[in-house]
Amino acid sequence: MFKSGVGFLALFGVGWWLLGTSGFEAPLRWVAVAAGCVLALGLMLAARRFLPASEGGPFPPERRRRFNQINLLQWLLIIATVIVCARTGHPVLVPPLVALIVGLHFVPLAAVFAQPRLRVPAAALVLAGATGLAVRMNEGADTTVRLVVGIIAALSLWGTAAWTVVRLGSLSRKAPAA
Question: Is the torsion defined by CA of 93, 95, 98, 102 positive or negative?
């Protein structure tokens, strides 16, 4: 599944990185954006190079159903959050609340995929969201909220992707050939 999830982690990391760097002035913003894109591309290429192809074919129907339920709930909560925050005049709360939702969605996914490593981005994204809310509660600027949430979220996703490449890549190199 996109080389053990590295592709998804890398690409969603770019999205959070774009949010986090949105308050930077040019040319620093463009340098930061380019660096984030290069990092994500590097992670995806490393996954392609060092990780084995997925085994076992498609997910069993029950696992696929559970995965779809978790993601559907996540997206419904995100849409509801955006609508409520927009209608109540608090759009700055969208990034930290979305980070909380996305972080919490990793908890059941860790069980569905039997991948305890997914608890790491779960905890880090919840931390990102909580930190963003704390910044806002202390009257921090919108750009500071976006910076804190976006950077922590991006680094946690990219860190998990890098950990996956290193860990699973080293295990596949140690495995005896069949």
Answer: negative
Q: What is the 3-state secondary structure (H, E, C) of 36-68?
A: HHHHHHHHHHHHHHHCCCCCCCCCCHHHHHHHH
The model carries a pTM of: 0.89
Tens-place pLDDT, residues 108-167? 999 998 889 899 999 999 999 999 999 999 999 999 999 999 999 999 999 999 998 998
Taking a C-beta distance cutoff of 8 angstroms, is the pair 131, 149 a contact? yes
Phi then psi for residue 115, to 5 deg, are -125, 85
Angle at 36 between CA 112 and CA 21, to 5 degrees: 100
d(CA 146, CA 134): 12
User: Could you give the angle at the alpha carbon of 61 between the alpha carbons of 101 and 57, nearest 5°?
Assistant: 100
Contact 81, 97 (CB under 8 A): yes
* pLDDT, tens only, 10-43: 999 999 999 999 999 999 999 999 999 999 999 9
Do 101 and 77 meet the contact criterion of CB atoms below 8 Å apart? yes
